[in-house]
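User: Can you recover a sequence for this backbone? Please restate the input before giving your answer.

Assistant: Of course. Working from this structure:
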């Protein structure tokens, strides 16, 4: 019997990948680094600082900036991103999320958020689902980001639930890797080609047959 459902945010409950891409694109252009949508796929599910390192590596500029300068660059990207998501409302919530949460609650299953984004609390508040979560894991509370399982394990630990009794929902390869490494059941949102290691894959969150999984 599963006791907890742990969700990633971007690409699972809402779509902010375009805003992330646009913000990184502006920064990369300013740095003179080639950055396109194909390379942006490498950043999905990865923390802000790790994403910056990947972009700098791609532009052969890993050693061109001090740690302080890298923090300034990451802050610049985040400021751009926050401007783009400031107008989010419940209309930005993916179809099917509310119904899925209602079913989980009816089964007394805890709901947790395990997003690498530090902006997750403001996003879920703007979309009207903040009160649905029993815990929102702060990404700064774990030493390593996805694909390390730390953020999923932290969610289970806070709730006092064994990882094997948890279901994780992810749309990124690194995220599914984290869920499986945590010893949890992995529900992939996307395609089987991109998420071959998920236990089950659905195209969209609205397609998830949660009752089938729980039973």
């Amino acid at each position: 019997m599963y006791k907890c459902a742990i969700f990633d945010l971007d690409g699972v409950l809402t779509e902010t990948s375009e805003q992330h891409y646009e913000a990184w694109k502006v920064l990369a252009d300013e740095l003179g680094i080639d950055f396109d949508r194909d390379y942006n796929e490498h950043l999905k599910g990865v923390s802000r600082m790790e994403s910056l390192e990947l972009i700098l590596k791609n532009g052969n500029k890993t050693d061109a900036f001090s740690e302080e300068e890298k923090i300034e660059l990451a802050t610049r990207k985040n400021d751009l991103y926050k401007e783009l998501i400031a107008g989010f409302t419940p209309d930005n919530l993916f179809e099917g999320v509310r119904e899925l949460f209602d079913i989980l609650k009816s089964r007394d299953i805890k709901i947790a958020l395990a997003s690498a984004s530090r902006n997750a609390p403001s996003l879920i508040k703007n979309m009207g689902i903040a009160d649905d979560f029993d815990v929102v894991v702060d990404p700064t509370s774990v030493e390593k980001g996805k694909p390390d399982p730390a953020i999923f394990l932290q969610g289970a630990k806070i709730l006092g639930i064994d990882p094997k009794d948890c279901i994780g929902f992810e749309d990124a390869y690194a995220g599914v890797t984290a869920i499986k490494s945590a010893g949890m059941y992995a529900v992939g949102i996307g395609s089987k080609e991109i998420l071959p290691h998920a236990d089950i894959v659905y195209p969209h969150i609205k397609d998830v047959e949660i009752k089938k999984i729980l039973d």
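That completes the design. The CA atoms of residues 173 and 195 lie 6 Å apart.
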